[in-house]
Design a protein that fits this description.
The chain has 98 residues and is α+β, with helices and mostly antiparallel strands. It has one domain. 19% of the residues lie in helices and 35% in strands. The protein is built from one helix and eight strands, in the order αββββββββ. Strands 1-4 form a two-stranded antiparallel sheet.
């Protein structure tokens, strides 16, 4: 019985790891130039503008609009960007950095 429970726990853990694994998507055509966005009024003094970007979805680029986000204390926003690789274009997500 203990062996069965241990095996069940192992299967659940492995299934969780597989679900979290990310895969790199290579896009053969380059993204369009960024759109010019009109920023709405800053909602709070510590809000940071997260610029819009092109996202690859269902075989084409779609625009994701920029937005304001409250800045975590001691952090700086590093914008996402498309990077050219030998196999194609890859999206590097934006993130908060200390």
């Amino acid at each position: 019985m203990k062996r069965l429970i241990g095996l069940l726990v192992l299967v659940i853990l492995l299934a969780g790891l597989c679900g979290c694994a990310s895969r790199t998507v290579y896009v053969l055509k380059p993204p369009p130039p960024p759109r010019v966005e009109v920023k709405v009024t800053r909602p709070a003094p510590h809000a940071v503008w997260i610029p819009g970007h092109w996202k690859w979805k269902r075989g084409r680029y779609i625009w994701v609009a920029g937005y304001w986000e409250l800045k975590p204390k001691g952090r700086v926003w590093v914008p996402g960007h498309w990077r050219r690789k030998p196999r194609g274009w890859v999206w590097v997500p934006g993130h908060w950095r200390r």
